[in-house]
Amino acid sequence: xxxxxxxxxxxxxxxxxxxxxxxxxxxxxxxxxxxxxxxxxxxxxxxxxxxxxxxxxxxxxxxxxxxxxxxxxxxxxxxxxxxxxxxxxxxxxxxxxxxxxxxxxxxxxxxxxxxxxxxxxxxxxxxxxxxxxxxxxxxxxxxxxxxxxxxxxxxxxxxxxxxxxxxxx
Length: 169
What we know:
Order of helices and strands: HEHHEHH
Strand content: under 5%
Number of helices: 5
Distance between the termini: 64 Å
Shape: elongated
Number of strands: 2
Largest sheet: 2 strands, antiparallel
Oligomer: single chain
Strand order of the largest sheet: 1-2
C-alpha cells in the first residue's frame, strides 16, 4: 500500500510558504538597514546560499512526495522551527538573509544570542539535516548538510570579520 501524498505535500508546502513569506520581509529589512547607513558584506557568496536552499527544497519536493513520515523527526523539526521563530523575533527588523552591518549598532545579545553567536545558522543546519529525515531521505540530509557546511564556512567567516570590524571601528 502506498502512502498518501497529502502529509508530505502539507509539510513541504508549509516550509516553502514559510521561505516565500520570509523573502519580502528580509528584503524590506535589508532596504531599511541600508537606508540607515548599513553596508552589505559577502554579497558574492549570497547566490550560493540561494541556490543551495532552492535545490534542497526542490530535491525534497521531487523525492519526498508519498514517503512515510517519521513522527519523531517531525517533532524535532517542529522544535527547530520554534528556534527559527525565536531568532526572527529576537532580531526583528535587523533580520535579513544577507549580511548587513550598520555602523554604531551593538551586536544583539538577547534571546538565543545570549547562548551562541550564530543561532540562525544552527537553525538552518538543523533544518537542512532534519527535514529530509522526516521522509527517510538520509542521502539528501547528508549531501545538503555537507554542501551547507561548505557555504556556511565562507559565510560565517565573512560575517565574523564584518562584525568584528564594526565593533572595533
